[in-house]
Write a structure and sequence with these properties.
20 strands, 8-stranded mixed sheet, alpha+beta, 597 residues, 17 helices
């Protein structure tokens, strides 16, 4: 039988049976329940009001804000875990609480996008200097009025606050209108309630961002996209636009932007596009000192030559191309960046890095097999008259008997040319001018006994079209432009410091219309497939005559049939290039720049 309702039980595990005990038990529980309910309502109203006031303060409202942190590191999308440690008091007037900031791995090196918030008692120069010594970027918050009893303090405890800024360890000042003096850069934050609590409050982030926004200071967002993935997915224009969006974006993409600029610059040099090179260097002279830094360590120039470019500047590349005009633009840009003396020293350093002692011997060693094969081909043509036929006027298509000695030597000669172009050139020049001079000398010396003594002899046409023309396939762009303008014309222009002709159009005979017409040497961006097979470009004439392809030639151009008519402009151009290269170093160096036979 259980206890009756009126029997009191003293055990903690048994209820009091009397109604009196029940009443005494219910009353305190009711007070507790009511107190909790009221506290919940008040708390919701208080924190909702606080949140609204925080948003309004970013728009310079006169709301009140409870702030209990004196310093926290923030970025646009930072993730902060507040420290529970007590604040360490700095020298008078500065309260300093630390906050633990967790940033993604991609932004750990980003310091200029982070701002620290300080609460100061005033904005005295001594106090600002004290904070400045800590370096970095900061938002400095202080009362708008130094006098605590002024109207800036309201009955609610809020005060008018202002903020100024430290960027990269420097206090920001602005010139005073109409005067030579400087004034502190500051903005109004509005009335706030700010306490110096030990527990950091998240509103510190809102207040910092509001101050920065009012001052027009943009802080970089944290990007979760890995640095290695982001830039390659963009085209160049988008990448440049993205780099300008924020400091962090600029840092993440700067290497890629620089590399793409270098690649474009090298392309313009390779194409002989001097106007584009000048435009880029005029806009940003520092491009002249940027080095190629890419996974692709070698590239092909216009003539198909493989060139090692890793770690090279555009100046070195232009010197290798022997484009003296473009090289001069780079030298001027280097001097503009580094000054006359240091710039000249740097230019000389880069020049001799591209053309170190012994580069000519190395070039001669590389090309020795091709020179030998060119002579073997000439001898095979001499002895293979029966194996070489021509279609005659108007096309003069030359055919070589298959499996003949001449065909074999011609194939070996072409292979030797391709082997040289596939070799990676590290130093020296990218096009060996000694080879075309050797071929023209061969043509001149053996015009009578090897090639029949007439320009339209099948043997002469084969050597001209496929030996000399085959070698011309490897010309650099500026050399091809010189041929199209006429080598003698180009030589004179360079000597007189006049702009070299930069057109790649030349005159070619059309056997159908029986007229000379202007055409592009590189239709569709590539070398004409007929060059080296059906014609070669003669180094004379104002437009670069296409000769040796069986057509009537310009009067007197081949009358002598040899060196005097064909080759003399080439050594003249070589001498002009030599003079231009020597001028880049500002002293006469007796080592050979462009060998002249």
């Amino acid at each position: 039988m259980g206890p009756r309702p009126h029997d009191p039980i003293d055990s903690e595990n048994k209820p009091k049976s009397s109604w009196g005990w029940r009443a005494l038990n219910i009353i305190p529980q009711g007070f507790i329940w009511l107190f909790r309910k009221l506290w919940s309502v008040v708390s919701r109203l208080f924190f909702r009001s606080s949140s609204q006031e925080t948003q309004q303060s970013a728009h310079e409202s006169k709301s009140e804000l409870s702030l209990s942190v004196s310093e926290t590191t923030v970025t646009a999308d930072h993730i902060a875990t507040n420290s529970s440690r007590s604040p360490q008091l700095m020298p008078p007037a500065i309260t300093h609480n630390k906050a633990i900031v967790r940033l993604s791995a991609e932004t750990k090196t980003e310091s200029k996008g982070a701002y620290v918030l300080y609460l100061l008692d005033n904005n005295s120069p001594a106090l600002l200097e004290q904070v400045k010594q800590r370096g970095g970027n900061a938002v400095l918050l202080y009362p708008g009025s130094i006098n605590p009893s002024s109207s800036s303090s309201s009955s609610s405890g809020s005060r008018e606050y202002k903020a100024c800024f430290i960027q990269n360890g420097k206090v920001q000042y602005l010139p005073s209108p109409g005067t030579q003096s400087q004034q502190l850069r500051e903005i109004s934050i509005g009335k706030q309630i700010i306490s110096r609590s030990k527990i950091p409050h998240p509103n510190a982030t809102n207040l910092t961002n509001a101050a920065l926004a009012r001052a027009g200071i943009v802080i970089a967002p944290i990007l979760t996209v890995p640095k290695e993935v982001l830039p390659p997915s963009m085209d160049t224009q988008s990448l440049v636009s993205y780099a300008r969006s924020s400091f962090l974006a600029h840092q993440l993409t700067q290497d890629q932007v620089n590399q793409r600029a270098v690649e474009i610059l090298f392309m313009h040099i390779s194409e002989g596009e001097i106007s584009q090179v000048k435009k880029m260097l005029d806009k940003n002279p520092e491009l002249a000192l940027l080095q190629w830094n890419s996974k692709t360590t070698s590239i092909h120039n216009k003539g198909g030559q493989r060139i090692y470019v890793q770690g090279k500047t555009g100046y070195e590349f232009a010197v290798g191309e022997e484009d003296t005009e473009i090289a001069a633009l780079f030298k001027a840009a280097i001097i503009k960046v580094k000054g006359e003396v240091e710039g000249q020293e740097k230019a000389n350093e880069l020049f001799y890095k591209q053309r170190p002692p012994g580069w000519e011997e190395e070039e001669a060693k590389r090309y020795a097999p091709t020179f030998v094969q060119a002579h073997k081909l000439a001898e095979a043509i001499r002895d293979g008259a029966a194996d070489i036929t021509s279609s005659g006027e108007p096309d003069y298509i030359v055919t070589v008997e298959e499996k003949s000695t001449t065909a074999s030597e011609l194939a070996a000669y072409r292979k030797s040319l391709n082997d040289r172009r596939n070799e990676v050139v590290t130093t020296g020049r990218h096009y060996n001018l000694n080879l075309p001079q050797e071929l023209l000398q061969l043509y001149n010396d053996h015009y009578e006994d090897y090639f029949g003594g007439r320009w339209n002899d099948p043997r002469a046409m084969l050597f001209w079209q496929q030996s000399i023309g085959g070698e011309q396939q490897g010309m650099t762009a500026n050399m091809a432009q010189a041929y199209c303008d006429g080598l003698f014309n180009t030589a004179q222009k360079l000597q007189e410091e006049k702009p070299q002709g930069r057109s790649l159009k030349f005159e070619k005979y059309d056997s159908t219309s029986r007229r000379w017409g202007v055409m592009d040497l590189y239709p569709g961006g590539r070398v004409d497939s007929d060059l080296g097979f059906k014609f070669a470009i003669a180094p004379v004439g104002g437009s670069g005559w296409c000769l040796g392809c069986g057509h009537e030639s310009p009067p007197g151009a081949v009358a002598a049939g040899g060196w005097a008519a064909w080759a003399w402009p080439l050594p003249s151009l070589c001498q002009s290039k030599k003079a231009g290269l020597q001028k880049l170093t500002q002293h006469h160096d007796h080592r050979s720049f462009c060998s002249v036979m």
